[in-house]
Amino acid sequence: MKALRFFIPALVLPYQLVSCTNVANYYLKSTKIDSNVSIIDGDTISFLQNDKKQTIRLFGIDAPETFKNNIQKLAKFENFYAHQARMYLTDMINNKELYYRFIKHDKYNRIIAFLCYKTSINTYSDVGLELVRNGLARVHYISVDSKHKYAVNEKNLVEYFYKLKAAENEAKIQRINIWQHAQKDVFYKP
After folding, report:
1. Residues 165, 127: contact at Cβ < 8 Å?
2. CB neighbours of residue 140 within 10 Å
3. Which positions fall inside the TNase-like domain (predicted)?
4. Which of 70, 78, 116, 118 could tie 97 with a disulfide, CB 3.0–4.6 Å?
5. pLDDT tens for residues 145-188?
């Protein structure tokens, strides 16, 4: 088992190094978010575009839900980690140049998209990947299984799935944040 712990990080590192380069090239074709960004929760933001409110749900990830009303059921640690994810997202993108790459609309008419911010050294960092890497979101609503409801088959989306899974596996091994607990204690909805 010890050998496996050292082996997996060696597999994850190439995904992390390649990620920034691929993301930078990918985001050159993206839309800049100009103003009024609001953080809704750990995987959703809103902003104004042409005087119209837009909402982005980050592609391929799921952060814990925040408590919204007395009838909503949450897992034991869900509200706690929901607030942690929201604060982390707020700190990560605050005062940053943001870009998104549209994928599709969901059933709530939100934009499902990749979200990146420009770093101080003029590279781009993928927000969803960072949340997963830091154990504040899980890989969800994406699959490479062709029979799955959220199956992807485009090359860049398949590659992204594997980057997310590598980051998630590393966070699980290190028991970072949500991975200190059983999934049923962090997510009410499996």
Report:
1. no
2. 18
3. 39-181
4. 118
5. 889 888 898 899 999 999 999 999 999 999 999 999 999 999 99
d(CA 120, CA 68): 35
Question: Which residue bears the tokens 């712990």?
Answer: 5
Q: What's the pTM value of the predicted model, to 2 decimals?
A: 0.83
**Type of residue at 153:** N
- CA-CA distance, 127 to 158, in Å (whole number)? 18
Q: Is residue 134 within 8 Å of 43, Cβ to Cβ?
A: no
What are the backbone dihedrals phi and psi of residue 119, each rounded to the nearest 5 degrees, phi first? -85, 175
Position 96: which residue type?
K
Give the pLDDT of residue 177: 98
**Cβ neighbours of residue 70 closer than 8 Å, sequence gap 6 or more:** none
The radius of gyration computed from the CA coordinates of the chain, to the nearest angstrom, equals 16
